[in-house]
Structures are given as structure tokens and as C-alpha cells.
Design brief:
Residues 1-155 form the Helitron helicase-like domain. This protein has helices at residues 2-15, 28-33, 59-76, 92-95, 108-127; strands spanning 81-86, 135-144, 150-158. It is of the alpha+beta class and 171 residues long. Strands 1-3-2 form a 3-stranded antiparallel sheet, sandwiched between helices. A hairpin with a 5-residue loop joins strand 2 (135-144) and strand 3. It is flat.
Length: 171
């Protein structure tokens, strides 16, 4: 269902390039007009499809996400903690729910659910219970490894009294 829905979104974007004002972006048109490109066979260039920044996973979406993260860091100050949370397929919560003969890689839904619950618990401890100090802001990114295991990279900026100013503040 997700793949079908995603394909419908991409087809809409392909057929409505005028609606999203794709002509404003340079690329294929610049290549066709470029005076140094007279020896280029235009039939080999294909058609460039512009994905809007609202299309998750597109280059413009990632660029905007990066710009937002940099703006947060610029506003809040330096990053105090870089935390990586990695899933372990041998967690007892995962092993207990597997049917006989199943491996964790057979159940990506189970792995994702258990990891998300553990991530929420860790974030709750850090942000709301102030395990590292008072958090003024944070940024995180979910990723999936090639072995189908999720992990999170998180950046935490602390409030002024809990900022790390020297190495003696680290225990």
C-alpha cells in the first residue's frame, strides 16, 4: 500500500511540473541552451523531474532539513552531547516475541517497534528527567543500517547552567 501511494505521489509530481513551477530550477534547460554543449545528443539527456521540498527523501527535502538543523545550532549555541542509539537484535524483548524458527531479520516490524519504545524511553530520561542536565534543544535523525537494524543520531544542546565549558565538567 505504501509503495502504491508513493508511486501515485511521484506520478502526480511528474505530470504536474508546471504546477510546482519546475521551470524555475536550472538543469536540463540550461544544458540544452548552453553554447558549449552543441555536441550533446539531447535525446540522451532524458527529462528532469523536480521534486518539491515537501517530498520526503528528495534532495531539496534533505537540504531544508540540514538548513533547519544548522539554524537551531546557530541559535542555541554549540552542541554538548552527540548520542547514538543502536538497536540490538538480541534484546530479550525481541527474542521473546519470535516464533520458533524465526530470526530477528524476519520481523522488521517487531524490531522497529521495540527500538522505537526504547528510543522514546531514553529520550524521556534525557529530556524530561534531565539525566544529562537541562536540555534546551535537540535534533535527531533515524537511520536504518544495511542489516535492517535502526539507529538514531541525536544532538543535545544544554541550557546555560549545564553547558560543558571544560573537561573537568565531564565525569
Amino acid at each position: 500500500v505504501w509503495a502504491s501511494s508513493e508511486q501515485n505521489r511521484i506520478n502526480f509530481l511528474r505530470q504536474n511540473q508546471q504546477t510546482i513551477r519546475a521551470e524555475l530550477y536550472s538543469g536540463l534547460q540550461d544544458m540544452a541552451v548552453d553554447t558549449d554543449a552543441h555536441d550533446v545528443d539531447l535525446s540522451q539527456l532524458g527529462q528532469r523531474i523536480i521534486l518539491p521540498s515537501s517530498f520526503q527523501g528528495g534532495a531539496r527535502h534533505w537540504y531544508e532539513q540540514c538548513q533547519d538543523a544548522l539554524a537551531i545550532c546557530r541559535e542555541e549555541g554549540s552542541i554538548d552531547f552527540f548520542v547514538t542509539i543502536t538497536c540490538n537484535a538480541d534484546w530479550p524483548e525481541i527474542k521473546a516475541e519470535l516464533l520458533p524458527g524465526q530470526t530477528p531479520s524476519d520481523r522488521p516490524d517487531l524490531i522497529a517497534r521495540v527500538f522505537h519504545l526504547k528510543q522514546k524511553a531514553i529520550f524521556h530520561d534525557i529530556i524530561h528527567k534531565n539525566a544529562l542536565g537541562t536540555v534546551s534543544s535537540y535534533i535527531y535523525s533515524d537511520e536504518w543500517q544495511k542489516r535492517s537494524l535502526p539507529h538514531v543520531h541525536a544532538l543535545f544542546m544544554m541550557g546555560q547552567p549545564d553547558k560543558l565549558h571544560n573537561t573537568t565538567a565531564i565525569d
